């Protein structure tokens, strides 16, 4: 089984993150599973801006383009390793293989481990975005507004070599959210999650700190298996109704989508 892990960043330029994440995933995966970590061909690090998220998601060499490459290259499933769930619904519309996003998967799983969940974004604009996503996913009654670390994505990268301040802020926010009633707390960024996992933070004031990257990987493995064994797939009524292959091929030409990576150094 081959799983395509899709980051919303130019992860080929982020050595500390890529190496830590790859090791985590390889430690967790089934022995018969290959996990390939991929990012966008190029992109800004200003992921707290919704405009950048949109461009990274839908531009040439972006998240959607890369996920289309995954199916063309014979991958069995896609795990979107970004809590923003970029281009997730659009990929499910276009592709026949299972597609799962870090945000939706983690929020739904959190509901199985506690009545109320929350999470911690790295930036306040992202925490607002995740609150909207919880509403969109129908989880308003189970959700406590997300907290944040008060930093940007560049500062998150520095925490791979100097995690002290970010970890301290994460623990402080976790205590606040636990006091507000959160029973499950999500590290609401695959990069932050990789650091929190490395620092072995699993519980704060009785609240579970869920390893979201692990949950996404194992869920994607299971759903790929169900797709193969019983043919489980997305409903093709309304939301995920699929266009014809001829239409998709035409769109690729119109928008200049790439058939293979063109990574910018």
Question: Could you please describe the fold and organization of this structure?
Answer:
The chain is of the alpha/beta class and 265 residues long. It folds into 2 domains: 140 residues, Rossmann fold (3-Layer(aba) Sandwich); 111 residues, 3-Layer(aba) Sandwich (Rossmann fold), CATH 3.40.50. The chain is 46% helix and 13% strand. It contains 11 helices and 9 strands. A 5-stranded mixed β-sheet has the order 6-5-7-9-8. The chain has a 4-stranded parallel β-sheet with strand order 2-1-3-4, with helices on both faces. Strand 5, helix 6 and strand 6 form a beta-alpha-beta unit. The longest helix has 19 residues. It is globular.
Rounded to the nearest angstrom, the distance between the terminal CA atoms is 30 Å
Q: Outline, from the CA principal axes?
A: globular
So, CATH architecture of the largest domain? Answer: 3-Layer(aba) Sandwich
Structural class: alpha/beta
Mean pLDDT: 98
Number of domains: 2
How many strands appear in the DSSP assignment? 9
User: What profile does the largest beta sheet have?
Assistant: 5 strands, mixed
At the first level of CATH, what is the class of the largest domain?
A: Alpha Beta
Order of helices and strands: EHEHHEHEHEHEHHEHEEHH
Q: What are the low-pLDDT stretches, counting only 5+ consecutive residues below 50?
A: none
What is the number of helices? 11
Task: Please bin the fraction of helical residues.
Answer: 40-55%
Strand order of the largest sheet: 6-5-7-9-8
- The fraction of residues in strands falls at 5-15%
What is the alpha-carbon Rg in Å?
A: 18 Å
CATH topology of the largest domain: Rossmann fold
């Amino acid at each position: 089984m081959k799983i395509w892990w899709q980051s919303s960043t130019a992860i080929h330029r982020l050595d500390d993150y890529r190496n830590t994440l790859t090791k985590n995933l390889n430690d967790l995966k089934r022995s018969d599973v290959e996990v390939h970590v991929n990012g966008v061909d190029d992109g800004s690090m200003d992921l707290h801006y919704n405009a950048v998220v949109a461009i990274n998601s839908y531009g040439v060499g972006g998240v959607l383009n890369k996920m289309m490459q995954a199916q063309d290259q014979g991958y069995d499933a896609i795990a979107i390793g970004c809590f923003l769930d970029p281009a997730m619904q659009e990929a499910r519309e276009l592709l026949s293989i299972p597609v799962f996003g870090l945000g939706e998967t983690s929020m739904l799983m959190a509901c199985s481990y506690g009545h109320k969940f929350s999470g911690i974004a790295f930036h306040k604009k992202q925490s607002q975005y995740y609150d909207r996503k919880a509403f969109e996913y129908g989880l308003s009654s189970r959700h406590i507004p997300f907290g944040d670390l008060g930093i940007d994505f560049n500062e998150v990268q520095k925490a791979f070599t100097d995690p002290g301040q970010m970890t301290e802020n994460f623990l402080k926010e976790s205590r606040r959210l636990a006091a507000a009633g959160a029973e499950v707390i999500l590290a609401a960024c695959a990069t932050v999650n990789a650091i929190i996992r490395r620092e072995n933070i699993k519980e704060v004031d009785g609240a579970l700190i869920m390893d979201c990257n692990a949950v996404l990987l194992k869920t994607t493995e299971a759903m790929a298996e169900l797709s193969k064994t019983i043919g489980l797939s997305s409903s093709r009524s309304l939301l995920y109704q699929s266009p014809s292959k001829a239409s998709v091929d035409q769109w690729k030409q119109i928008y200049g989508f790439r058939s293979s990576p063109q990574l910018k150094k």
